[in-house]
Amino acid sequence: MRSLISRVTLVAALAAGLASCGPKGETVAADDMTQGNPNAKVTVVEYASASCSHCAEWNEDVYPAFKAKYIDTGKVNYVYREILTPPNEVAAAAFLMARCAGKDKYFQVLDSVYRAQSQMFQTGQFREGLLTVAQSAGMSEDQFNACVTDEKALKALNDRVEKYSKEAKIQGTPTFVVNGKKVGAEEGGARTLAELDAAIAEASK
């Protein structure tokens, strides 16, 4: 689990840094990224970072079964909320890129980032890795560059991170909240499907 940096200012760091850095009744906002049934009785919120290795492991090991069991069947409304963990500029660029790809491709792009994460950390080639993901989603290099240096979009991201970090008291990633109640330890951490099963069953009563 990666520790949380609650406030980041990355405008200047994005271009240079990428090249150099080796609650109950959850209100779903218009800018939230969601999957599943928006009218479901149960809302599952994941607070996660694109640069968090534990988030990538959950995405690989648990998310496919969770998606098949709850999202694809319409049993839950799944909400993914972006948190920035070190290297912050990498997480920010990944989220900006995923949003630029569009809501219909957001989770596909995020999945590709998670799958490329290990290699990016091993090689330190973060920009190259993210650019490859962007191009696979149909973006050109110019579009990618414009996307990850968009100051307005970055400010909106920082504002969301700060808001949700404070409101949900996020201390680490990933953190899962089911109908406003945190699953597992207060400081967060990847949860098994069994743990989520239990939390969803309780919330469904």
Summarize the topology.
Elements: E1 2-3, H1 11-20, E2 33-36, E3 42-48, H2 53-61, H3 63-71, E4 76-82, H4 88-101, H5 106-123, H6 126-136, H7 141-148, H8 151-167, E5 172-173, E6 175-178, E7 181-182, H9 193-203
Parallel strand pairs: 3-4
Antiparallel strand pairs: 1-5, 2-4, 3-6, 6-7
Structure write-up:
- With 205 residues, this protein is an alpha+beta fold.
- The protein has a single domain, classed as Glutaredoxin, CATH 3.40.30.
- The protein is 52% helix and 14% strand.
- The strands form 2 sheets. The chain has a 5-stranded mixed β-sheet, sandwiched between helices. A two-stranded antiparallel sheet has the order 1-5.
- A hairpin with a 2-residue loop joins strand 6 and strand 7 (181-182).
- The longest helix is centred in the middle third of the chain and has 18 residues, at 106-123.
- 44% of the residues are buried.
Shape: globular
Which structural class is indicated by helix and strand composition? alpha+beta
CATH architecture: 3-Layer(aba) Sandwich
Measured by DSSP, the beta-strand proportion falls in 5-15%
Strand order of the largest sheet: 2-4-3-6-7
**Quaternary:** single chain
What CATH calls the topology is Glutaredoxin
Q: Give the helices and strands as they follow along the chain.
A: EHEEHHEHHHHHEEEH
- Radius of gyration, rounded? 16 Å
Largest β-sheet summary: 5 strands, mixed
Helix amount: 40-55%
Mean pLDDT across residues: 89
> CATH class, anyone?
Alpha Beta
Head-to-tail CA distance between termini? 31 Å
Number of strands: 7
Stretches where pLDDT is under 50 for at least 5 consecutive residues are: 1-24
CATH superfamily: Glutaredoxin
User: How many distinct helices?
Assistant: 9
Total domain count: 1
